[in-house]
Input
Amino acid sequence: MTAARRVLLGGAAYVLGETELHHSRIEGLAERARELAMVPKAELWGWGNVRRTERTLQDLAVEAGRATLTTADVDPADVDALILCSTRFPGGPRTHGAFTDDILTGIGLTAATCTGVTLNRCTNLLVGVGLAHALVTAGQHRRVLVVTTDRITDERTRMENFALFSDGAAACLVAAAEAGPLDGAHEIVACAHLQRPGTLDWSHEISPDLAREVNDRILTPLDMKTGDLDHLVHPNLYTPVVVLKERQAGFAPQQLFTDNITRIGHCFAADPLINLADLGTAGRLRAGGHQLLASSVPGARAAVLLRTPGVLDEPGDDERQPR
Output
């Protein structure tokens, strides 16, 4: 029997809007809070700063993609696929070709085909990573660049009842281990994406039950429990929303990473990758530890389980699976 192909995720990088804005300067924040029936207490919700851009989605995507390839030390010509994620691709069929071309040529991807991922809202990135993992595992591609890019176009919607939004982009490389080393790469152990039809519209809440189902889908076959994870790397929604929903899903407070809620707010689907990169920069990813990247929207949950390389790991070591 052929051994399962090992797939790595590396080069996590991100770019934020160039203008840092304190929440008190968000256009119409007080009126919007009243409209959403939210008590205007910053410390309660975790209101802090957001980042705003005047740049295009293409510009953000190109910068994030280039940063990932530089971090991973991979030549753009060696990437054979791009998965491009956004909650809202501008224009339509007449403009999407040029939009895609701007990003491919801007990053320097001369041999890559592009697949677009949308409609999954703020789970887009993790759905894209799951798709990349499947394509690499199947042998259809060897190195897949996954990029998510988003920005607010109407300042009145920068505040919602679950988050303050920032503009930005994030990227990572998903690659077969035999394609070559990736500096600081994690092994993708498992992925899952579940939806519950009939509950996908915004009138429904984020479901802890669905999160627990995803946990079971990923962890049970590996003989793992949520307590075996070092971190849940989640979106930067309002602090009480994150804490309540993820505690109900089975995670402990010390597994949550909430620092970026006040630092940058919610950058659409990019949050889990942004937070993973920041945990790594801060030296908080334990060798041999497991991180669960996860994101929920009403009616859907996507997650990716990563294993951080251990100090004794060797390139040919097959002992990569959890106990």
The two ends are 21 Å apart (CA to CA). The first helix runs from residue 29 to 35. Confidence is low (pLDDT under 50) at residues 314-323.
